[in-house]
Amino acid sequence: MARRGKCAKLFSDNGKNFVGASNEIKKLLEIVRNPDKKLANYLAAEGIEWKFIPARSPNFGGLWETAIKSCKYHLKRVVNGINLTYEELLTVTVQKLREF
Length: 100
Prior knowledge:
Elements: E1 9-12, H1 22-33, H2 38-46, E2 49-52, H3 62-79, H4 86-98
Parallel strand pairs: 1-2
GO molecular function: nucleic acid binding
Protein name: Integrase catalytic domain-containing protein
InterPro entries: RNaseH-like_sf, RNaseH_sf
């Protein structure tokens, strides 16, 4: 996010990957939805909205899911099966983003 400035809205899905971490997600939701909490106050002060798509509605996240699928496809072709460190992955990603 820092490369493109502060975001104005965060969207989260309700995918199966959240099921295994349901207790942590419940704590996070409580923090976000409770106006007395620090995170909610910080987001409000910064003008950032955090929205959740409806449960069992994958079509709401279709655009970003398609973007992720495309990114994964092209990234796999670029790295050609090589295991990259975080710094190497970041470098490759930034270099490719400059081409757009």
